[in-house]
């Protein structure tokens, strides 16, 4: 796929609509293991939250999801990417989190666009529908990752708790890492880019399902 | 035996370059009169495979690298093929050691490829991989299951030689693990640990100061049913661990500050899942 030099303004509006918190994905119900990290005292403030989310983005599940999105956006087989995404899920709740949101994303975008895609995990679904948009891959990957991080900040603001301003500062702090990864994956989302170095975040996602008190579904 | 003194980085530089390892050991098992038997065995270079006498119906295969470890530019492969209906337990003779590599040699490359036909069961239980300072190892483990074949798999990694108080700074470790059923990936774990990971070794999302980490997975249609058996073991002191079961897999992960604590915990989990003793080389 040739990268457009400039993003089409109308297509950018479409993508921002799809990735905005008002788009009905049910994302607010999922914490990606963050609830366990907060309730076990690992994350107590904005700095620890920013570290955790930065790690997920740069070298954890955020990176892996973004690789799959980038591959499908560039024309890769969505069924293969969907199967790999499910195999990569560190925990069943992470798998459900991605599938529930992907299903909701496709239900709404299928209705808007007149497409008929079967259910797929969220990053694959976004990559697939975004193929029709005249946008640079780094724009799509970057906005996707920011949406992922912003949703988790929204949950953390309630759980820690943090002030709204502190939460927005965390999102702002993540911008360089998000932009760097988006640029890297726009160049090459091959096997060399698919890796993870966040064993304890994976463990938190697994431990969440065994927690007695849970507000979130992951 | 194979536990010879490892060359440190300085020693490698001072000595004439040793010959690069290019080794492969491949074994195939078939079903004969209802029993699993070794059908073929090929060994090249320093890669060997042995079949110790065991008093169980399923054969035990032990791979080893007689070069004693891996350094930059080395290539080693272990291949295993299980015909339908067979059951094999495979392990490694000793811990795999990844020694210091020089930048100009590139990383050591290791591949493990296992195929298992319908109804087969492979227990792939290699001993830990010990990463030395400046180690560069890229390993790929691919397990292909057909039909209802089952797989019990574990992998453990130790960062530095604890006895020497070694704290790693420089590392290039990639360990891609993929298990497929009928060609479709069912579990993928592309671990990568580098100097950047080590610079933040206390990171709460990463290692949390741990020196050893492990994953154990049982891939079988009824694997999630065993979650209740292993979950109590995840509360073991000295190990941070958890377990989950879903979609035909049971996954257990653990990290520890003390490699020996992790090894003992792994043995307990594997004993619980197997209901029989671990291969003798695992003796702890």
Automatic annotation (TrEMBL), chain A:
Key words of the record: Chaperone, Cytoplasm, Nickel insertion
Pfam families noted in UniProt: UreF
Compartments where located: Cytoplasm
Main location: cytoplasm
GO cellular component: cytoplasm
Gene3D superfamilies: Urease accessory protein UreF
MF terms (GO), sorted A to Z: nickel cation binding
Family classification: Belongs to the UreF family.
Biological role: Required for maturation of urease via the functional incorporation of the urease nickel metallocenter.
Quaternary structure and partners: UreD, UreF and UreG form a complex that acts as a GTP-hydrolysis-dependent molecular chaperone, activating the urease apoprotein by helping to assemble the nickel containing metallocenter of UreC. The UreE protein probably delivers the nickel.
Protein name as it appears in the record: Urease accessory protein UreF
Taxonomic placement: Bacteria, Pseudomonadati, Pseudomonadota, Alphaproteobacteria, Rhodobacterales
């Amino acid at each position: 796929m040739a990268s457009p030099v400039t993003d089409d303004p109308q297509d950018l509006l479409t993508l921002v609509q799809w990735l905005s918190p008002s788009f009905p994905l049910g994302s607010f119900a999922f914490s990606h293991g963050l609830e366990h990290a907060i309730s076990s005292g690992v994350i107590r403030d904005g700095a620890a939250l920013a570290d955790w989310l930065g790690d997920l983005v740069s070298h954890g599940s955020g990176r892996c999801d973004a690789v799959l999105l980038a591959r499908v956006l560039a024309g890769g087989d969505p069924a293969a990417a969907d199967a790999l995404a499910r195999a990569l899920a560190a925990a069943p709740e992470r798998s459900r989190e991605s599938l529930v949101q992907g299903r909701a994303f496709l239900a709404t975008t299928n209705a808007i666009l007149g497409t008929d895609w079967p259910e797929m995990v969220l990053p694959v679904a976004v990559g697939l529908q975004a193929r029709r948009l005249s946008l640079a891959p780094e724009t799509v990957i970057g906005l996707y990752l920011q949406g992922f991080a912003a949703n988790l900040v929204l949950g953390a603001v309630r759980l820690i708790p943090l002030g709204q301003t502190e939460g927005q500062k965390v999102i702002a702090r993540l911008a360089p890492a998000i932009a760097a990864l988006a640029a890297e994956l726009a160049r090459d989302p091959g096997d060399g880019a698919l890796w993870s170095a966040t064993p304890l975040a994976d463990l938190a996602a697994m431990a969440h399902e065994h927690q007695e008190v849970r507000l979130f579904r992951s | 035996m194979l536990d010879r003194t490892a060359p440190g980085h300085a020693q490698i530089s001072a000595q004439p370059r040793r010959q690069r390892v290019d080794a492969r050991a491949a074994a195939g098992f078939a079903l004969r009169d209802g029993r699993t038997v070794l059908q073929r065995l090929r060994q090249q270079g320093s890669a060997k495979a042995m079949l110790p006498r065991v008093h169980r119906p399923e054969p035990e295969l032990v791979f080893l690298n007689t070069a004693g470890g891996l350094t930059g530019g080395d290539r080693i492969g272990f291949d295993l093929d299980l015909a339908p209906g067979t059951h094999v337990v495979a392990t490694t003779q000793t811990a795999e050691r990844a020694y210091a590599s020089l930048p100009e040699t590139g990383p050591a490359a290791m591949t493990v490829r296992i195929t298992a036909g319908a109804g087969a069961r492979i227990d792939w239980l290699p001993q830990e991989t010990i990463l030395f300072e400046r180690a560069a190892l890229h390993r790929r483990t691919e397990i292909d299951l057909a039909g209802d074949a089952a797989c019990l798999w574990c992998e453990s990694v130790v960062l530095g030689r604890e006895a020497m108080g070694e704290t790693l700074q420089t590392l290039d470790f990639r360990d891609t693990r993929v298990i497929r059923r009928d060609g479709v990936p069912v579990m993928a774990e592309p671990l990568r640990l580098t100097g950047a990971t080590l610079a933040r070794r206390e990171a709460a999302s990463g290692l949390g100061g741990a020196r050893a980490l492990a994953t154990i997975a049982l891939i079988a249609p009824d694997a999630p049913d065993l979650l209740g058996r292993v979950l109590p073991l995840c509360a073991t002191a000295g190990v941070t661990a958890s377990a989950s079961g879903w979609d035909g897999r049971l996954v257990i992960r653990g990290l520890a500050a003390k490699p020996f604590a992790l090894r003992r915990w792994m043995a307990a989990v594997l004993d619980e899942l197997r209901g029989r003793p671990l291969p003798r080389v695992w003796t702890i």
